Amino acid sequence: MQRKQYKDSRNIARRDFLKLAGATLGGLGGLSLFGPRPLFAQTTAQGTIDSVRYARPGVMPTVINVFLYGGASELGANFTNRSDIFSASVNSYPGGQVSVTANGFWEQAGGAIMEDLVSSRRMSVYRTIHRRKDNSRAHGRSISQNLKGGLNPEGPGIAANLAAILHRNGVVDPGNDLFPFVSLEGDGEIFDTSDLQLTSGLRPVALDGRNLSNPYEQRANGNLSSANSARLEDLANTVTAHHVQTRPTYTDLQRTAEFFQRRRSVSNFITNLRTLPLPGGVTYPANNPMADRLRSAMQIAVNNPTTRFISVGNGGIGGWDAHSDAINTYTTNMTRVMEALRAASDHMRATGTENRIVINVYGDFGRNVNLNNSRGWDHGNNQNLLTLGGTAYRRLGRVEGRTTLTGSAARNRLFTVPASGSVEYEPFAIASTVYQMFGVRNPDILTGENPIA
After folding, report:
1. pTM for the structure as a whole
2. DSSP labels, 341-372
C-alpha cells in the first residue's frame, strides 16, 4: 500500500520540506542557528523557509516533553464551568472534593500548586487545546498524531523531525554531542523516524527515568565481573591508542575504537549524574514516580548542554483513561504531577536554566465532564497544555482560553468547548511552538498549525 503524504494548505509535504532544507544547506557547513544568516534561505512560491532571531541570541533550548498517556481530564487546570457542570451531570460530584481556586484550578487536583506557579510567572496554562481536525477521540490515533505533530499518523515524530533539521544545519553533531536526544519512556512515537534517514547518534538514548540505571556499563549484561569489565576497558584503551598512532585511515577497527570511546564517555557521564547532588533548596517528593522521572530529566538537561530533547511518559503513577472511579484517582495523580513540576521549576531557578529549559505537559485528548454511572469520564476533545520555563522565548504567568459547556449528559456526551471569542489551538500547535523555539520560522509547513502565541 502506498503511504499517504499529508500536505498543508500551501501544499508542501513534510518530506519535500526536509529535502529542501538539505539541498539548500548541504554545502554551507557550520551554519549557526543563531547567526545572522537564515536557517533556511530557499525562497519558493509557497514561502520562505528560514530561521528566527531570538530575543536572547545564543540560548539553545532543551525541551522536556511530558506526555500523559490515556487522556487526562482538563478539570485540574480548568474547573471554570463548575456550576454548570454540577447542575448538568447525571451523577453528582462530591462537593467536599471540589474546591476551585481564583484562576479556576481544581484545588484538590494540584490546583494550589498551579496557582503558585502561575502567579510567580513560572508556568503558563492553555485551556483550549481543542481537537477539531480529524476530530478523533481514539487513543492510538490521537497519541500518534499528537506526538508526530500533524494529521499523518505514519509520519516521523516531533523529535525525529527536529533531529533531522538541527543536523542539516550543523546545530547537532551526532559524532561529538553527548546524547542530544533522550527517552525516559522507552520507544515512543515522538522519536519515530518513518522515512527519515537518521544516524545512530541522532536517535534517542533510552534511559530508565526512575533511577538512571546505566545501560552503557560493560557489566550491564550481568556476565562480567568488575575485574573483567576493567580489563575490557583497558583493552579498548590499548587498541584505540595503538590504532590512532599506527593506522590513521578510517577503518572498521577505528569505528570499533570510537564506539568504545563514546560508550565510555556516556557511561561515565551517567554514573556521575546518578551521584550528582541537587542544588541547595531543591527537593523532589519521595514515592512519586513522576518526580523521579522529572528529576532525571532535569539533571540531564541542566548538566548536559548538548541534550536538545527529552521525552517523559507517565509510567508508575497510573494512566489517565478514567472511565470509572475517576475523581480519587485523578486528584491523586494530578497532585503528584504538580508536585513534580514544582520541584522541576525550583531546579531551574536554582541552576539559572529557566531561560533555556522548557517543560511541556499534555496528552491524547481531554475527557467529557459528565460523571457517568461508573463515576468516571469518557473521552473528550478539549485538553490543557501546562508549560514551564523557556523564558528566553516567551512570557510565563499566562492563563489562556475560556470554555463553555455543551452537549447532553443524558447521552453521556457533556463536554466543554472554547467559548466564543476565546483563543484555541489544535494539539499540533504544540509541535509548531517547539520547532519555532529551535529557529524554524515556518513550522506550519510541518504541522499545518501556527505556534501558540
Report:
1. 0.83
2. HHHHHHHHHHHT-TTTEEEEEEES-EE--S--
* Rounded Cα distance, 289 and 321, in Å: 18
Residues 6 or more apart whose Cβ sits within 8 Å of residue 95: none
The class that CATH gives domain 14-220+263-447 is alpha beta
pLDDT at 26 over 60: no
Q: Which residues pair with 126 in a beta bridge?
A: 385, 400
Look at residue 143 in the predicted model and tell me its pLDDT. Answer: 96
CB-CB neighbours of 157 under 10 Å: 24
Domain locations along the chain: 14-220+263-447
> What pLDDT is attached to residue 440?
86
3-state helix, strand, coil in the chain (%, to 5): 35, 15, 50
Cell numbers that stand for 278 in this block:
541537587
Flag the least confident range among 242-246, 276-280, 319-323.
Answer: 242-246
Distance CA 453, CA 180 (A): 27
Q: What are phi and psi of 436, to 5 degrees?
A: -60, -40
Work out the angle at residue 399's Cα, subtended by the Cα atoms of residues 326 and 344, and round it to the nearest 5 degrees.
70
- Reported as type and span, the H/E element at residue 130 is strand 123-130
For the cut 60, the answer to whether the pLDDT of residue 5 exceeds it is: no
pLDDT per residue as tens digits for the range 157-209:
999 999 999 998 888 998 889 899 999 998 889 999 999 999 888 999 899 88
Single out the residue of 137, 94, 377, 80 nearest to residue 146, CA to CA.
Answer: 137
Distance between CA atoms of 272 and 33, rounded to whole angstroms?
Answer: 30
Rg of the Cα trace of the chain?
A: 23
Instruction: Sort strands 357-363 and 382-389 into parallel, antiparallel or unpaired.
Output: antiparallel
Which residues does 61 contact at the CB level (< 8 Å), separation at least 6?
308, 356, 357, 358, 390, 392, 393, 437, 438
Which single residue is written with the C-alpha cell 506526555?
67
pLDDT at 61: 94
The predicted-structure confidence for 112-134, as pLDDT tens digits, reads as follows 999 999 999 999 999 999 999 99
Q: At what angle do helices 226-246 and 252-275 cross, to 10 degrees?
A: 130
* Selection from 448, 441, 449 nearest residue 165 by Cα: 441
Q: Mean pLDDT of all residues in the chain?
A: 83
Query: What is the C-alpha to C-alpha distance for residues 187 and 157, in angstroms, rounded to an integer?
Result: 11
What cell was used for 138? 481514539
